[in-house]
Amino acid sequence: MSVGRSGSEAFRLTGPHGPASAAPRSGSSHSESGAAKYDYRMAWVWWTVAAVLFLAAELATATLACAMAALGAVAAAVLGVLGVGIYGQLPAFALVSVGLIAFLRPAVMRHQELPGLRTGVAALVGRDALVLARVDAHAGQIKLSGQTWTARTADPDAVFEPGSVVHVCEIDGATAVVL
Question: Which end of the chain is more exposed for a tag (fewer CB within 10 A), N or C?
Fold first, then answer.
């Protein structure tokens, strides 16, 4: 008995109650063990699904590692469409993914880093602040970016009175060091 290869038949798993392959057969019987066989010619579909899942994971993580794995899955899917077997697709996936993660990702990450971008308390250094309570080498209060901070002077002899504007030169724990 011969089985044709329509689009739906090529993707069929086979077992004791179905055709053994989507490819034409010549009088052979079904598998004796009853185990299902997978038609490896359709592996490109699974690689495409894997690529989509990797891209979804990339949206959640934004590390670029999952995007590189998605490109590896796309490379394996292309090989699958071209008729390369699973033993060619797996190494291609691994090599493309690892190669992109090892060589391309670091370059992209360096390019994305903005040298002038400071966040957190580092972003407060260099700003001006308003003195709320007398600031000397030991204590004081300032208004910095809309928040009240404890402050001390960087110069042990300097004293700033309320209403003065000071420059934040350092953040030491929860204390702004001012000039």
Answer: N
The single residue listed with the structure tokens 């702004």 is 176
Q: Which one-letter amino acid corresponds to residue 84?
A: V
Contacts of 97 by beta carbon, 8 Å cutoff, 6+ apart: 68, 69, 71, 72, 73
CA atoms within 13 A on the CB side of 112: 9
> What is the SS3 assignment for 147?
strand
Closest among 69, 83, 73, 82 to 46, alpha carbons compared: 73
> Which residues on adjacent β-strands are paired with residue 168?
178
Q: Which letter does DSSP use for residue 123 in this model?
A: G
If you count them, how many residues does the chain have? 179
Which tokens in the block code for residue 6? 């329509």
CB 47 within 8 A of CB 80: yes
- 3-state SS of 47-67 is HHHHHHHHHHHHHHHCCCHHH
C-alpha 83/C-alpha 20 separation (Å) is: 20
Q: Is the pTM of this model over 0.70?
A: no
Supply the pLDDT for residue 18. Answer: 46
93-111 pLDDT per residue, tens: 999 999 998 998 888 877 7
